[in-house]
């Protein structure tokens, strides 16, 4: 065989066939069809966990603030960083005995005076898809009975916490 024929034959064998490329594309498509829904569920669960943890942290801070108030100290509680719309749908509000319902856009912190009760509410009714259900399930897993798309934690002057 001549050198020219050997070169032509070697260069013809160097690429992929159309069938090989189609098989690879089909495999990538199948993997994407499996992975994308799982990823979306992961994101939704992550959002529900973030909202639940922020609410639990507020309740913990409120309990500590009421305890400090019983000792005669004034305490300031910071609302979650994106308190006007956590994850784009959950809205946190806070109130005390002197300001029973603060609007979420008006306060980034709340002051708890001595002998004062405090309340925190998270409303997640505007969350899309199954996110409200996942938030309710996450709250229930933490021992907080949540039956609607909003929950309020009331912390009285003695530090007792009740949910409604």
Automatic annotation (TrEMBL):
* This protein's record includes keyword Transmembrane helix: yes
**SUPFAM superfamilies linked to this entry:** Pili subunits (SSF54523)
Q: Provide the coiled-coil residue spans.
A: none
**Mind telling me which residue stretches traverse the membrane in this protein?**
12-36
**Gene3D superfamilies under this entry?**
Glycoprotein, Type 4 Pilin
Q: What are the entry keywords?
A: Membrane, Methylation, Transmembrane, Transmembrane helix
Name the domain of life this protein comes from. Answer: Bacteria
Family listed: Belongs to the N-Me-Phe pilin family.
Q: Which PANTHER family match?
A: GENERAL SECRETION PATHWAY PROTEIN G, PREPILIN PEPTIDASE-DEPENDENT PROTEIN D
Q: What name goes with this protein?
A: Prepilin-type N-terminal cleavage/methylation domain-containing protein
Which source organism does the UniProt entry give?
Acidithiobacillus ferridurans
Recite the lineage of the species: Bacteria, Pseudomonadati, Pseudomonadota, Acidithiobacillia, Acidithiobacillales
């Amino acid at each position: 065989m001549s050198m020219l024929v050997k070169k032509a034959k070697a260069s013809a064998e160097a690429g992929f066939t159309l069938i090989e490329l189609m098989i690879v594309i089909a495999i990538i498509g199948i993997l994407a069809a499996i992975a994308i829904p799982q990823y979306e569920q992961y994101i939704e669960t992550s959002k529900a966990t973030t909202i639940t943890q922020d609410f639990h942290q507020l309740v913990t801070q409120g309990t500590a603030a009421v305890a400090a108030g019983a000792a005669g100290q004034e305490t300031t509680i910071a609302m979650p960083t994106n308190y006007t719309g956590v994850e784009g749908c959950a809205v946190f509000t806070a109130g005390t005995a002197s300001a029973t319902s603060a609007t979420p856009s008006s306060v980034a912190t709340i002051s708890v005076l001595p002998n004062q009760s405090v309340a925190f509410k998270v409303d997640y009714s505007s969350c899309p898809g199954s996110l409200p259900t996942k938030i309710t399930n996450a709250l229930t897993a933490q021992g907080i009975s949540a039956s609607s798309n909003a929950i309020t934690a009331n912390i009285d002057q003695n530090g007792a916490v009740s949910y409604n």
